Amino acid sequence: MVFIAGGMFRMGSDRHYPEEAPVHRVTVDGFWMDRTPVTNRQFKEFVKATGHVTFAEIAPDPASYPGALPHMIYAGSLVFTPPDGPVDLRNFGEWWSLMKGANWRRPYGPKSDINALDNHPVVHVTFGDALAYAKWAGKDLPTEAEWEFAARGGLDGADYAWGDELTPGGKHMANTWQGEFPRHNLNQDGFGRTSPVTAFPPNGYGLHDMTGNVWEWTTDWYMPKHQPDAAKACCIPENPRGGREDGSYDPALPNIKIPRKVIKGGSHLCAPNYCRRYRPAARHAEPVDTSTSHLGFRCIRREAPDASPSGG
Questions:
Q1: Exposed, middle or buried by CB within 10 Å (0-12, 13-18, 19+), for 310?
Q2: Segments making up each domain of the chain, as ranges
Q3: Is CATH 3.20.20.60 the right assignment for the domain spanning 1-312?
Q4: How confident is the model over 189-206, as pLDDT tens digits?
């Protein structure tokens, strides 16, 4: 793990998607963070030690889905599949499908495996799966503010985790999509799907894959925009959490059937023509019961810098 000293920074962005605005000052205390997203190897150790069964491996309770036909109730997870022809970019169902038998062990369906993917990020994990791993490891999941502060790597206000240019000197700094999404990935960065977690350079704090490769869970409940900046320095939020002050769900949040958490960092499916979310300020809402082939997580520990936690 890497110790992030904490401090004040400008969170969010006024230059991109509306949910990232407004830019506002936030302060976070220091914390330790995993250098990389949790890998298949690490998650495999957790499952072996605990017997944990992920949400995607359990058939849904029909009572929770009234009206659903029996053949629609099965264990599975959302998998990205490139379409054969032109699609309506407003309809993500053109490239996402709930695939029977897809889970962290079989990321692209029953005929796939992770035999050669030990150092790739684990995917097909819900928020509950990620939190279960974190607790087993003696860690926690980051808040949105902690995650974004760490992702910026000390570059307060920069567009990307490495500066203001997407590909400085023509060099790809993260695993993203090049070409026309969702049909043609040119793979100019060397990867068409997930990549090893240290395949790209770390940011200024020594953290790999803070943008691109896979989205990452945070503990914050999603709100469609940030709170405005505090008028006085004395009132700058310290260690903010989405929801109530203790991080619990606030009924005043948007009335939706399944509560949503904030995910950060974008993924290998983010493309200039569709999803420019390979930036620290970018954020997205994810239902807590949803797992996908491009969503993972990393952990933190809120300890003093001399604690020297292992792992990560």
A1: exposed
A2: 1-312
A3: no
A4: 999 999 999 999 999 999
